[in-house]
Write a structure and sequence with these properties.
It is built from 3 helices and no strands. By secondary structure, the protein is an all-alpha fold.
Length: about 110
């Protein structure tokens, strides 16, 4: 998690962290949103693979097109994981209710 936070704070956000608005929210405590952590982890791994020393010449362009736009769009969506957060104010996401799953019926003898 430490490496992900370093990459997010020192690479991703300084370059791609656009202004926070109600139409494009961001939470200053993004690491407390499990969906954001999962999405950013995938984005970071793709970045490492597509921009590293063994990447081909089109890797960075592919990363921007295939990973950066979709992930940031999902995270910054007004109904995304940061929907309840405001600048300087974190609000945990409300988890949808889930009905308990009944155990399977035993096989007929």
């Amino acid at each position: 998690m430490y490496q992900l936070s370093q990459w997010t704070h020192h690479v991703l956000l300084p370059v791609y962290g656009r202004e926070v608005t109600s139409g494009a929210p961001w939470c200053s405590r993004w690491w407390e949103h499990q969906e954001a952590v999962a999405q950013l982890h995938g984005l970071w791994l793709a970045w490492a693979e597509l921009t590293g020393p063994d990447a081909d010449m089109t890797g960075p362009a592919s990363w921007h097109r295939d990973f950066l736009g979709p992930v940031m769009g999902a995270l910054r969506d007004p109904s995304g994981p940061f929907a309840g957060c405001k600048p300087g104010s974190h609000r945990p996401k409300e988890v949808p209710p889930v009905e308990p799953l009944a155990p399977p019926e035993p096989p007929a003898a």
